[in-house]
Each structure stands twice: as structure tokens, then as C-alpha cells.
Amino acid sequence: MSLFKLNCKLTFFKLRLPARSYGSDVRKTKLHEFHIRHGGKMVPFAGYMMPVKYADSIASSHLHTRRQCSLFDVSHMLQTKIHGKHREQFMEQICVTDVQNLGTGKSALSLFIDDRTGGILDDLIITKTDGDFLYMVTNAGCKEQDMRMLTEQLSIFKSSGHDASLEFLDSDEQSLLALQGPRSAAVLQSFVDGSTDLSALYFMDSTTATVCGVPDCRVTRCGYTGEDGFEISVPSDRVEAIAESFVAQDDVKLAGLGARDTLRLEAGMCLHGADISSETTPVEAALMWTISRKRRDECRYPGATVILKQLGDGAQRKRVGLVQKAHGAPVRGGAVLFNVVDGAKIGSVTSGCPSPTLSQNIAMGYVDSTFSKNGTEIQAEVRGQKIPMVVTKMPFVKPNYYSKPK
User: Fold this and answer.
1) What residues contact 149, with CB distance under 8 A and at least 6 apart?
2) Rg for the chain (alpha carbons), in Å?
3) What is the pLDDT of residues 195-224, one digit of tens each?
4) Is 266 labelled as part of a ligand binding site?
5) Quick one: which of 104, 219, 237, 271 has the fewest CB in 10 Å?
6) CA nearest 280: which of 347, 225, 371?
7) So where does substrate get bound (predicted)?
8) String of b and e for 18-27 (b: at least 16 CB within 10 Å)?
């Protein structure tokens, strides 16, 4: 586990913070003053001061991302380079992706799994670059945990004579921006060098480009919103100038943690610490698609014994989408779920919010597998009242990724 356990859930109108004292150990990204100058409301999150919102409401920021383009500061995430001749084999020791068969310039969503329990320690994006290293982005809330786990596993791996090394990129030196929304490609194309054609860069493709005159920026077509977009890794001493260039565009606005959470929930994406944790397996979380057929057949990925048994026997609970039938306050994380027939407890909500896109309250949670079928009616308890909910297919909002034509 990490030195502190992140257990914060962003809600639509307020941010619930972990029961932890934040003092001088709270860090600031290199865009901290930039956020304040642009009206960002700063809150402690995952060991950093981060903007939860700006002058616009979270709903307005959310809808602007869906319709045009928003810029997010995600520099609190952990960026890592994995070097060495056996770097791909090392990563396959600790995550579920078939890294060796990942194409050059391709990225994949992957998972760190507890080998003993089969639980998800973190989710991550792993990229096979065209250089002599792999590039990885992991969650801010798991940063210390991940760094310690990676270092420990590397020591074991190297003790067998393998060649691999880790380079953790400090946010003071390397920042990360996310440009998200249907206008993101047009905006970014106007700031990259002429040799970079973003129309040839598809969802989960990654390359290096000169951005706003800054060479060797890593540009990956991915994001947490369900919209087309890019994550851009840039030197921290140039990040403010790049961010200012983006937000000077009429169709680009700044967005914070609040909009990020409502967007990712509409997209049916998990937030670590809320929707997935070390007590959750990929089978339960509906994330088995992250494990390729080759790796499943080999049965050598972390947690394989537990996961394969659960696949064979069936998971006792499953992650589902929930739509709130009644109007009123949204059901939030922690609400208990019940069977409408006999009132038996069948699960709990992990996160919930009003959906600005759908104009209705939505949620995500875990229920006994018997009740996981789409259309099943259940109830959530809020302040002693039973709120009718319906199990529904995710994502709630169809993704708008820029995918290669089939």
C-alpha cells in the first residue's frame, strides 16, 4: 500500500477529501500560478494542489468539453520510462498487457494486479515508443505505492541477470497536459510542426512532436473523457507557455477535477480508489478486455490463478451502470443497494453524479451477479429513503474516439 491511502471521491458539487492532514508535503504542479491566474479553485488532491473548477460551473465545463475542447492539467500523474534490453519482459512480469507484441507507437490500457488476491493495484497506460524505452503513465493517488512496487520488482528481476531500469519523471521536470474534446485535433494541429499529421494518429497511438515550438513532446491520442483528445508530455519549464497558447484559442477552456469526474463517469470509466481497488478483480470490474488472449492462454500474468478460477466459477459481484429513475439529489458513492423484491442488500454504489449530457442522475457500483443484467430494477438507500435505480449498459454516453477505419 502507499504511504497514504487515497480515498477521495469527486462529486458534482463538492469534493470529498481523504481524512488526512495536508501541510507542507502538498506539492504544486508547474501550472499552479497559471491556474490561480485563470480563476481556478484549488484543492488538495493526491498530494497536489489541483483545480477542481474555474469560473464556469462544473456542468458548463463538462458540456464545453463534449462540444468543443478543454485543457486539463494532469501533471500530478506519475510518468515513467522503462529502459533496458529486457524492459518488455519486465513489464509483463508486473502488468497484464502483451507488451512484447504491442506495436511500435501504440499504447494500451493495462493493470497492475496483486498476484496473491487478483485485486487491481492500479490502472495505467503503457506505450511502446519508437525509442529505446517504454513510456508509462499511472495514477497520482497510487504514485508512492507504484514507485515502491516497481522498484522492488525491478530488483528481483535484475537479480536474475536481466537488463532493465526505471526513470521516474518528476513533475518539476516533466508535466502532462490533456487536451480533450471534438475540437482538440484541430487545435493541436495548429501548434505542432509541419511533419506531424494528427489525422494519421489514431486512438491509443503515440508519437513525439514539436508542440508550440518545443521539440520532443510526447503526444498520445487518449484521455479519460470518452471524447477524442490527447495527452501531451512536455518539459515543465515550457508548460505554462504551451498552456497559455492553448487557452488563447476561442474554443478552448480550462477544466478541472470536477468536470473530469463527471466526464469519466458518463464514459463508464473507473476511478482508482473509488470504482476499482485492491479488493476488486478484473472479472468483477468488467476489465478482462485489458488481458489479451495470448496472455490469458499463457496464464503467466500477475493474479492469473485467482482470475482464471473466477472466470471459471463466475464472479459473485459485477460492476454495473445505474440510472436513477426518480428526480432529486443524485445517489453518491457509498450508498447501499437493495433487491426490490425482498429488501436484501445486494451491493453498493462506488460513484454517482448528475449527468450534464443526459440530464439525469447516473451512478456506478457493484451488485451481486444475479442482479447485473441490464434492465434490472433495484433500490439505493439515501438518508433512509429507497431510491429506484435501473441497471444499464455502460458507457452511458457513446465514446467519440478517433479510431482507424475498419
Assistant:
1) 94, 112, 121
2) 21
3) 999 999 999 999 999 999 999 999 999 998
4) no
5) 104
6) 347
7) 231
8) beeeeeeeeb
